[in-house]
Amino acid sequence: MIPKTTRHVAQAVFPQPAPAMRFRDEFEGFLQQLDFAALYPVRGKPALPPWRLLLVTILQFSENLTDREAAHAVKARLDWKYALSLDLKDPGFHYSVLSEFRDRLLKQENLLAYLDVFLQCCKDKGLLKTRGKQRTDSTHVLAQLRVMNRYELVAETLRAVLNTLATHYPEWIRDYIPKHWYEKYAHRFENYRLPKKEWDRADFLRRVGMDGYYMLCALEQDSAKEILQKQFSEVEAFQHIWKRHFRRTSRGVELIPSDELPPARLGVESPYESEAKYSTKRGKEWVGYKVHYTETCDEDLPHLIVHIDTTTAEANDAPRLELIHQALQKRALLPAQHWVDAGYVSAEQLCQSQNQYGIGLIGPPRGTRKWQKGPDDRFDLRDFRVLWDEEKVICPSGSTSISWKAQTSKQRGPSILAKFRGQECLGCALRKKCTTSTRGKQLVFLPRDRQEALFEARDLLNSEEGKKLYQLRAGVESVFSQGVRAFGLRKSRYRGLAKTHQQNIFVALAMNYSRLEDWFAGNRPQPTRISALTRAQPIRVKQARRKTNLAPEAHL
Known about the structure:
Elements: H1 4-13, H2 19-26, H3 28-33, H4 50-62, H5 67-76, H6 78-83, H7 96-106, H8 113-124, E1 133-142, H9 150-168, H10 170-176, H11 181-184, H12 198-219, H13 225-230, H14 233-245, E2 246-249, E3 252-255, E4 277-281, E5 284-296, E6 305-312, H15 318-330, E7 337-339, H16 347-357, E8 360-362, E9 385-387, E10 392-394, E11 403-409, E12 413-419, H17 422-426, E13 442-445, H18 448-462, H19 464-470, H20 477-487, H21 497-520, H22 532-536
Parallel strand pairs: 1-7, 7-8
Antiparallel strand pairs: 1-5, 2-3, 4-5, 5-6, 9-10, 11-12, 12-13
Helix pairs in contact: 4-5, 4-21, 9-10, 9-12, 9-14, 15-16, 16-18, 18-19, 20-21
């Protein structure tokens, strides 16, 4: 219930309701349906109303404020007091309350619970419909860390574990570490403080490596059992980094050469943020995470984010689509059509989306690797006639395969191998367009349902109608543009995958809040802006269209 004084003053100051005021008026039912009982004990000091803290957090992310700034806005801003049902004289609360509240939210199993309540309110108001149109894409999120080179990483890792143990087990530290370490590892290691010459750097790393192995031996003692049971993240990162970067030889401790290191995706990039991973995509390198946003894209409704999936940076996009569909099905938010890019599309996903979830997956199947480079008139799978019922394949020259074998591999999954007689292939006039093998043509393709789904998807995207239909996917880029520019999506405020995922959920709630405010104000989504220079050019030159190849599942 909004206090009368607050309501009268706010309405007098804002004849046209401010965004926070309009949100409170339109979605008061959302705030009343929230259930926080499981987050708080039955006994103890009375807590601040959790619905109020959740609304403060949404408003905080909608304006990209820090905790201090958000707490000050609660105390100083009239529109926030209206939205939070606060008296004009209310002094607010200490900013640390927001951090404690987020920690409580992390303890619940379903972090999307409050987003689901919000989306249900949107359904009740006719702003969201089930079995509509949706689109999904991913972007990178930078971790809350300092990117370090190998010299900095190993030295800073040892310093981090020493500081952690000194905080929790100071007596143990005094008993085991040499006295000169107190000065050697007292300050943060940065590149400008390290030796400049290569020989001196190698000697410095060798000494740090020896110190690290001394520390590992100390942690193996009986007195360190309690330390290992605590499972400090810095200790685990220290053990992982030393195993990755150093090795013992007959000459002592040496740094493993860069070309012998395991893949970067398996490494730990910081002792303070061990879950963040290194990845690269289209020439962009980053350390952190990846977030998949799914938004509605119906023409006559606001575009709302309905699902958030956060992973480590190295995770592949393709397996996430099945998990996204499972989550949407569980929450009764499945679309009828789902637009994605090539990273999500495979023959398996095309079949599974349609058969299991009733979703029409719209996206370009990825290109295939040619069996050899050459002119465009080389034969591909479509030039062969596959007799599925008879389990035979007829080649362009009319020869019939002599074998048909179902097989399975970890990379491609189930497939079929058809072989042709070598003598017939050697004497064939079309051999140069078909194969270079002297043992006869071998054709690998997918099971019938997957192969036909693949061809159907390719035919759709190659047609003018399909190209026009697929243009709807490009709008999902506005999610990341808006999120990065207005809501701080690009960089995580917190450390760890769970907290980064929670941040991405609040960013989604803030974007939904902002988009609904525009919708209520009469502002509708607009097409992509065209620059004045582009509009002024006399002749618009169309880019050459890329030819669509076979998907990677269909190998010749």
